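Dear support,

I submitted the protein below through the web form. The confirmation email said the job was done, but the results page showed an empty box. After a refresh the structure appeared. I'm attaching both so you can tell me whether what I see now is the final result or a partial one.
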Amino acid sequence: MPLALAACVTQPVPVVAPPASPVAPAPVAPLTPTTWDQLPAWPQLDLRPSWPALLQSCKALGRRAEWQEICADSETLSANDNDALRRFFELHFDPHTVRNPDGSTQGLITGYYEPRLSGSRTRTARFRYPLYAVPDDLLVIDLGEAYPQLKDLRLRGRIEGRRVVPYYKRADIDAGKTPAPGRVLFWVDDPVDLFFLQIQGSGRIELADGTRIKVGYADQNGHPYASIGKKLIEMGELKLEEASMQGIKAWAARNPQRLPELLAQNPSYVFFRELPAELAAPLGALGVPLTEAYSIAIDPRNIPLGAPVLLSTTYPNSSEPLNRLMLAQDTGGAIKGAVRADFFWGFGDEAGRQAGRMKQAGQMWVLLPKPAEPSADMTTANNSLSSPR
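What the results page shows now:
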């Protein structure tokens, strides 16, 4: 009996530890110090057209400690002396390679511009699509005031009873839920042009008497941007190479009945304000006028607003090199990531054609102000503190 029982005892199965999950590499910092000789075409680059854009950055940054000497010295230079400008940048800035979290250095470079729309201050049979100012019921909550770790993050919403809820999406606003009619700045004649005005963030409204009124970004409904070009590709309506602004407009002209449904795929909605008539160019997020073909929009979480950025890409739909010192003076809802920029082409139809076709690969190098050297008094003080008694 004991032998029979022993024969029935189950032998223990050895426990095998599951294979360890691979540890994801830590994301690479967006800015890596480099040297001037690593910047493409730097010795040959014509910096003179970039100079006015740098002076615009100084209008916003000139009082900051790290920019004071830079902006003071900029006033003493001749904008026509390219060698002096190159020495200026090398003296005052340190170059940094811009990298994606995975360490790669290539990213997407798109374009934007300042469009012209036909409009009216009153609604008519022709002008029936509203361009809204910021609605009175839009709440903007600065999360950084309550949670310092959320600095620069803002929540947008509206009050419903005793609750704060997300603000209306594009489909709701286009259906007339909000804002009140009194918040309409202009009425325009083309919903597609109005949609692209929101993507560009600024433009000009031409009235019947020929007057052109500048309008610029005022706020946004808080919902994320979604590309309708990408949606059309996913739907099989357009090929990748057709999903430009011009391609989307052509699709809209062929499919007017389906247009509202397509536009609703992007829940983001931008509100506008009138800009001073004397303003020569639209204001970027830095608060200074943009410089045609020398300002870019960037993601400020990775590149500081106002900084010079060497952009190495190609012209739209071309392999022709485009190496240019740009100034990071704007942001955009679709501009997310480190190696990511939106090239400002300026105003008008030709600028629109260039912007609409631009979807190029590119690399970026940002120039950061050199850290201030300690004064002689501070150096002496530090030496005395570190010396043995």
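Response: this is the final, complete result; the empty box was a page-load delay. The chain is about 25% helix and 25% strand.
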